[in-house]
Amino acid sequence: MGSADSKLNFRKAVIQLTTKTQPVEATDDAFWDQFWADTATSVQDVFALVPAAEIRAVREESPSNLATLCYKAVEKLVQGAESGCHTEKERQIILNCCRLLTRILPYIFEDPDWRGFFWSTVPGAGRGGGDEDDENARPLAESLLLAVTDLLFCPDFTVQSHRRSTVDTAEDIHSIDSCEYIWEAGVGFAHSPQPNYIHDLNRTELLKLLLTCFSEAMYLPPSSDSSNTNPWVQFFCSTENRHALPLFTSLLNVVCAYDPVGYGIPYNHLLFSDYREPLVEEAAQVLIVTLDYDSSTSSSPTVDGTTTGTAMDDVDPPGPDNLFVNYLSRIHREEDFQFILKGVARLLSNPLVQTYLPNSAKKIQFHQELLVLFWKLCDFNKKFLFFVLKSSDVLDILVPILYFLNDARADQSRVGLMHIGVFILLLLSGERNFGVRLNKPYSVRVPMDIPVFTGTHADLLIIVFHKIITSGHQRLQPLFDCLLTIVVNVSPYLKSLSMVAANKLLHLLEAFSTTWFLFSAVQNHHLVFFLLEVFNNIIQYQFDGNSNLVYAVIRKRNVFHQLANLPTDSQAIQKGLQRKKRTPEPISRTNSQEGVSMEGSRPAAPAEPGTLKTSLVATPGIDKLTEKSQVSEDGTMRSLEPESLQSSPEGNPPSAVSDGEPWSGEASHPRRDRRRLSSASSSGQWTPTPDWVMSWKSKLPLQTIMRLLQVLVPQVEKICIDKGLTDESEILKFLQHGTLVGLLPVPHPILIRKYQANSGTAMWFRTYMWGVIYLRNVDPPIWYDTDVKLFEIQRV
C-alpha cells in the first residue's frame, strides 16, 4: 500500500474516532488496528493527521474511547516487547503506537482530571501468561515504561543481534543480558558496536516517547517543594527497571562518544547524513531528566573527599533510590572520567571550532543540555569534580563556557544559558585548584567580541565578566553577585594579571562606587565589598607578579579615597540619587579603555524579535547559594558555620530576585532590617538613610589598600619627578621589584564562598531544563500549544 493510501486510511480512523459518540469496545480489533496495523506514517505525519483540537474533543466528549486508544497502544508495545518483534510488520506496529502515544500524552497531562489515568490499573490488562492475576495490578504507566525499556534492547530492532542464524533460533528478549548490548563503548563497556542507522532511528523514536512520558513535570506549576518526584522518572530509575544500568550506560556513552566532525575528516558531514545526532540529542535530554534530583533534601549521593582530593572514601553511602543518580555518583575509574570529560569538552567546543573553520564540522545545538549534564556530574560525583580540576583539561570546559556567556550576554532569550554557565563556574571556583589552573597562558585564539590581550585564562575570565556587566542586558543584574564571587574565590591564586584585566577590575570598582549606584538599591554596596576583597587577596597573597594591578590601583587611587570619604548625610544621599535620574545608563561604558576587539569576532547580538523563550523561577541570593569556608595554612578548608559568624560585614546579602523584577532590594530584603536602617516612604519604596549608609561604610575593608597607597604613592611620585617620567614601563619595573613585606596589615584568612546545594537551585534547574527541552523539540513540536504550567512561553 502506498504511503498516500496509508495516510488516508489513518486519517479516516482518526475521523471515526472523533465522530463516534458511543464507546468502542476494547475487543473491537478491526477498529483499533486501523491506527497502527496497516499504516506506515512518520512521526511528522501523525502530528499532522491528529490535530490538537480533535484530541481534546475526544478527551472531553468520549473519554472512554481515548482511554481505550491509549490502553490498546500500550498493549501493542507490551506484546511487541514480549515477542521480540521479529517481523517487519511487528516493528512497524511498534513505531506507529510509539508515535501515536507521543502525540496524545501531552493532552492527557494538561488535564488534571486525566493525570491519574496512566497510574490506574486496567482490568484484564495483565501481561499474558499464567500469572494473569498478579500482573493485573500493574498501572498502565508501568507497563508502558517496562515495554519501552525492553524494546530499547531488542535484537535486530534497536541493537545488533548476537545470533548468526535465522528467526527460528531468535533470541528470547527476556533471557538476553542487556549489559552485553550497551549501545556504545565508554564507561563500563569496551566494545563499540557497528553503527546501524535503522537502530539509531528506532532508538530515537522510543526515547522521544520516554521523554514525553517524563514531561508530565511540565504541567505542574513550580513549587518551592522540589522534592515532589516525577512518578514516571521514579519508576523508570528504580530497581523495577531491569535495564536501568545498561540504559544509563548506553545514554551516557552515546553522548560522550559522539564526534560531530565525522571521524576526524573535516567537511565530512556535508557528504553523509548524520543519523547519530538526533539520537545523541534525545539521549542527552532523557539523561538530564532522569537526573533531576534535589541533592539538598536527601542524604547526599556524593562522596566527599578533602578539598585536595586525596583521601577518597572507599565505602560509598547507599545512595539515592534513583538508580541513574546512584550510578552517576559511583563512576570512579580514571579512564571513565577521562572519556566523559574529553567527550563533553569536545562537544562544548564544537561551536567555537565553527568560528575559525566555518562549516568544517557539523554545528551541534545541544550545548545547554551538555552544560546541565556537566553540572549534574560535578554536583553528584565529587570524585569527578576533583578529576576535572586536577588537570588543565578544566580549561577546555572553561573556554567554551566563557564563549557562550560572552556571546549570549545581549540576548534576552538566553538568560538561562547565562545562569547555568555562571553556576558551573561558581561551583568550580569553590576549589583551590581552579584558581591555580587559571594561571595557564591563554593562547587559543577563538574569535570573541572582547579586547585583544596577552595573558592567562584568568585575564580572559575577568575581561568576559567585565563585558557581561557593562554591556549585557538588564536581566543579568541578579548575576553580578555570582560573577564577582567567582572572581573573589580565585583571586588569592592569581599570579599575574595583565594590564587589560587590571584596568577592567578598576573600571568596575569605579562604576559600582558612584554615589547614585550605591544609594539606589539596598544591596548594591555588596559589589564594592566583593571587589575590595579581590584587591586585598591579590595584594596580600600575590603581590609579587601583580605589578599591573598595583599600578592600576595607584593610578585610580582617587576611587579608594572617595569611598573612604563617602558622604553619609541626608543631603548628600539625595544629591547622589538626583544624579541617577540624569544618567539612566546602568554602568558607564566610557573610560574603560575598550580597545580593539579580536579579529573575526562578531558583536554579541540581541535576540531576534519574536524569538520564543521560557520563563525561569528566581534563583536564590548569593548568601543562599554559597557557604563560607576558610582556607587554612595547609590548604584545607573548613566550613564556617553560619552561627559562628557575626552578621556578614556586608550587611545582609541580597536574596532572590525574580526574572521579571527590576533589580531593587524591595522584594528581597528582610522587613525588619529595612525598617531599622532606612525609612520606608509612603509609597512603600525603600529609601536610603544616613544610618544605613554608616552601617556598611564603617565595614569597608580599605585598610590594606590605604596602607599600600601610603607607602607606594610617594615613591612613585618621587621617581616621576626625579626622572621626569611619564613612561609607565619604568614605574612598572620599579613596582615589580618593590616589596611591602612587613608594611601591610597581617594577612586576613582566605575566605571562599562555596556553592551549596539547595532546593531553590534544584527548582531553577528543573524549570530551565524543561524550558530548553520544550523549545528544542520543534520537529515534531511535541508540547507546542499545550497548557504547560512549569513556565510561561514568552516572545522577545
Structural notes for this entry:
The protein is mostly helical and 796 residues long. Among the domains are: 1-124 and 144-160, no CATH class; 391-606 and 626-637 and 690-755. 51% of the residues lie in helices and 3% in strands. The protein has helices at 3-19, 29-32, 43-49, 52-61, 63-83, 88-109, 132-136, 140-151, 197-214, 231-236, 244-257, 276-290, 323-330, 334-356, 367-380, 382-390, 394-408, 415-429, 432-437, 457-471, 480-490, 499-512, 515-520, 525-541, 547-555, 557-564, 570-582, 622-625, 671-677, 690-697, 703-723, 728-737, 759-776, and strands at 612-614, 626-631, 637-639, 679-680, 686-687, 750-755, 793-795. It has a 3-stranded antiparallel β-sheet. The protein has a two-stranded antiparallel sheet with strand order 1-7. A hairpin with a 5-residue loop joins β4 (679-680) and β5. α5 runs antiparallel to α6. InterPro entries: Hid-1/Ecm30. Residues 571-687 are annotated as: Disordered. This is HID1 domain containing.
Radius of gyration: 30 Å
- Largest beta sheet, briefly? 3 strands, antiparallel
Helix content: 40-55%
Count helical runs: 33
Strand coverage percent: under 5%
Question: Are there runs of 5+ residues with pLDDT below 50, and where?
Answer: 124-132, 299-316, 588-593, 643-682
Rough outline: elongated
Mean model confidence by pLDDT? 84
> End-to-end distance, in Å?
46 Å
Strand order of the largest sheet: 3-2-6
Could you tell me the number of beta strands? 7
Secondary structure class reads: mainly alpha
InterPro entries: Hid-1/Ecm30
GO cellular component, one term: Golgi medial cisterna
Protein name: HID1 domain containing
GO biological process, one term: secretory granule maturation
